[in-house]
Structures
1.
Amino acid sequence: MFQSLSSLSELNHEHILNVVNGQSFGIHIKNFCPIETVEHAKDVLYQHQSQTMLDASTPYVRIGKGLIEIKSETDRAHYHEVALDNIRLIRNSFKPYASPIDQLRLLLDEVWPTGAKLLQVNGKKCFVGICRFQRAGMDLIPHTDKLERNTPSHDQSELLKQLSVNIYLEIPEHGGELEMWDIEPSEEEYQKLQGDRKYGLDRETLPPPATSIKPQPGDLILLNPRLIHAVRPSSDSVRVALSAFVGYFGENQPLAYWS
């Protein structure tokens, strides 16, 4: 189940280790981002000219590109080339307030004994802080996330666990629940479950989710994305979140974050 914290000052490295070690699905920090910051950012981000669609076949829109979207070495080069520009774009969208992604970066650096830093792939810094808009009716189907699928094999050997963080800006009144299954398939098992699908799993082939949670605007959820998880479609409005991944390389190593 999720550990619920009422303020970010309660978070410590033991909470993060509990997720890493499978003792909890994740951490839910209520009111991580003040509501006035959320309302300000919505006014800026929802009209931002940098919004782009993930692809022509889906209504999924985002600001900033995710490492998971890289399809070629040309894509990879461009991702890293604009990484810092995109970090500053998200930061500037929150001015005069602090960006929640920057607050997350500081928080991880403070609570983790050896700190936290931007992930580098082939010596190049990654982007962190992608803003995702899940429009009404869109089903973010069951799936898992693994950095190993998106990085060169020689640059991933030290990663032990992967966590995922979402900071919510808008949640629909109906739908938008985060669902999690107590299933962490190996890559071979996942590919077998996926079959011929290009992305994700058929919900009908899975048992009912082990838990579900509905965050509110301003909340933060940190979870283990290697467990199968999904987001129910909304029926009335867009679902908006800032997203990041966090890499765990051992208790004596810094955390690393990216999007």
Note: The helical segments are 13-20, 35-45, 73-81, 83-93, 100-111, 187-194.
2.
Amino acid sequence: MRRIDYMTVAGIIAGIGLMGGALVMGGNPKLFLNVPSLMVTVGGSFAAVLINFSFQDVKNVFGTVKQAFTTDLMDPEELIELFGELARKARREGLLALEDDANRLDDPFFSKGIQMMVDAMEPEMIREILETDMAYMARRHEIGQGIFKTWGNLAPSFGLIGTLIGLVQMLAKLDKPETLGSSMALALITTFYGAIMAYMIFIPLAGKLGLRSEQEMMLHQMMLEGIISIQSGVNPRILEERLRSFLAPKPRRQPASEAEIAQEEVFRQRT
């Protein structure tokens, strides 16, 4: 189920709120609204992004950006518990009994792996196919992050270009000294826009997408190892502990003792 990432939403609302509050308290906020400056920074930097990437890459990134605001990734602890249940079921009823579970899983990667295992494909082939899926998924994620990183790097440069344009226009009006102050202020607004775009929007979005990609890759690596382990007939408790090695030390549970594993084996043989 897709969930809202409240940290991203709160960060953007707090950033806009603090920035807007500072502009209002500092005087007339309308001084910071200038359409030509927006055209140079937003339009100019976006045009450069179009040159740097393919149309399809840019088109896809608008679908990718929603991943920064929402997430449908499984909780790693829930995934470990699910693998424990699947492993116990496979031991009791055989691998074919997991076919219904493959159809119920929401994650296409997970479902595909379980289905290949049910279809009795060789473990090496399953690993190769799933690792290929992961490699191309990582490539797609890199492109999405790369677009926002590039846009974030270009925005301040276009802000500087806008400032240079404003300075040239200001110098052309030296015969009207009364306009120099307002012309200088307008020239600096593009630099302000460029900095806001880069440091409050695009670079943080690229960072959040990178974090999301790492989380998804870790979950898929856990799924891959879990599927191969079930197919190999690994003890469910050992499988759970193996998957917990992917997690940071704090969420890990105490590893299963030899006595617990032996008890598990006795229970399995009785059932």
Note: The chain has one domain: 33-247.
3.
Amino acid sequence: MKLKSIVTVALLLFVAVSLTVVVMRNTSDSAVGSQGDSAAAVEGDKVIAYYFHRTQRCPTCNRIEALAHEIVHQSFAEELGSKKLELRVVNIESEGNEHFETDFSLVSQSIVLVDMKSGKMTKWKNLDQIWELIGTEAEFRGYVETEIRNYLSAS
């Protein structure tokens, strides 16, 4: 009787893990708003809002990227047009992008604001509350917009 229960639990776990892998693969293939990797060199003075992700992405990861994209394009159109602000989406698992993980002490998908002066990074800030706030879209939007606005005014 006990062996039968253990085998049943093991099979259920195997099915759950298999379904999770299939869902994650399908989700990463249909990432929302992905613009490809963009880790090219930076010229001049600007703030770069990076969205860093891994190859495997969950629905929440895609939601964070989509909201970041909306916030930047809706609330900072003037700054985007004048090139004071730039949004870059970077897969940190793509060849050549691995350094971002250590450069910014990344532990998960993240939005990082980087101040660039004459093409060189002078400071950066990881918006570390995005995972806490993603459940409430208004709070997430308010947090990201305020942080970008404050960062732009201080740069």
Note: Strands lie at 46-53, 85-91, 110-117, 120-126.
